[in-house]
Amino acid sequence: MTKTEVQMQSYETVFITSIDIKEDDLNKVLGKIKEAVSKNEGEILKLEKWQQRELAYPINDLTKGVYYIAEYKANSGVVSDIESSFKFLREEILRFLTVKVKLAKVKPVKPEPVKPEPVKPEPVKPEPVKPEPVKPEPVKPEPAKTESENTDNSAFKTPDAKPTEKGGES
Amino acid sequence: MESARDKRYMNRKKYCRFCKNKEEIDYKNVDLLARYITERRKIVPRRVTGVCAKHQRILSTSIKRARILALIPFTVLHK
Fold it and tell me: What CATH number did the domain enclosing B29 receive?
């Protein structure tokens, strides 16, 4: 499991489409990404529209474009799969750029706060120790109960004794 | 007079703001990258901005990526 996680890389693809792209064409593009990611045993982390903005320079005589971001985690074959499929969608996609995202740097950071957590339980352990003195307390009531039982018995005995006394009297 | 001259040439020491503020350089952050580009859309040398070598490397690659995505122009001579 760990080996496959190490091999898995996370990537980020940004691509630009024209403003008046048809829904079918857009779904075709998004479908290609999903297809490539699922083929390479990965998962899509993010797939959304980023923004619509004016291009810094005209591409294919277009001055405006819509930017989309796709973040995914998969085996290294994804990039070539996605980029080769994008090359057949030149009418839909003006530009695209795939970049390796360093989630690996984020991962070691997460374990670090996890390590202190096991340390924290140690101070927590003294707390379970405290309940131990508490336990004797419930133990104490028990002898109290036995005492009460004894008293009850004595109380029972005395009424028993009393009738006998009474009987003796009668 | 001499003291006035000294003052004129005295510069505040430059520092790498990415090291100090721990800002992350991202090719999508256009406002940040635009600060490190000249009027002619060239990358500003680090001797001017004071950015350290490590961050200048990251900065230049992210400016180049932003250029590819048409977030920043390559030159003024487009069109």
Answer: 4.10.640.10
